[in-house]
Amino acid sequence: MGDTRPVYQRIADDLRQQIDEGALAVGARIPSRAELKRTYAASDQTVDRAVRVLKAAGYARGQFGRGVFVSDRMPIGALVRSTGAVDSPLAADIAMDGDGPVPEPSLAWEAASTVTVAPPQIAARLAVNTGDRVVCTQYEYLADCRPLQLSTSWEPLALTEGTDIAFPEEGPFARRGCAAGTPPSASGSCGPPRR
Fold first, then answer.
1. What is the CATH number of the domain that holds 139?
2. Which helix (H) or strand (E) holds 49?
3. Which domain holds residue 112?
4. Mean pLDDT of 55-80
């Protein structure tokens, strides 16, 4: 199976992995735009977007005139798909600054789903066998078209294949989540009916 993730996401994921594994340590300089373009055969815009994703996720910070460096990540709040949820950092009432109300940001997300096989850590979390077929969905949450948070979800195809939620961003529950579309009296979940 080929990698169907957008190129910018592949670049960001590769850099994130290098940071997580210590190949790029805290304080190390992220390769320059020219180096990233050459390494990944990507355009300026694609490389810039990948670096913005890293910055938004707290993996990197820019220093004017010097470049982008690996940051010492601090946890930030989670953004949930419903902007009205009380646990979303964007769910508060209209913010105020010294000049009056600040309009709420325009929120959106992008998603890319691929069918793949469960790596060992994911298989253990899902209680499936390593190598079982799963759907991996990568989300990029955006505020005013700028990356804010990354999220990855995994669903075992043994449970979802052939249902309306096999691909979470397609079908009747797309962009709403399955909980929004299923009455509690139905099956108790959005997945296949219980047997």
1. 3.40.1410.10
2. helix 44-56
3. 104-181
4. 75
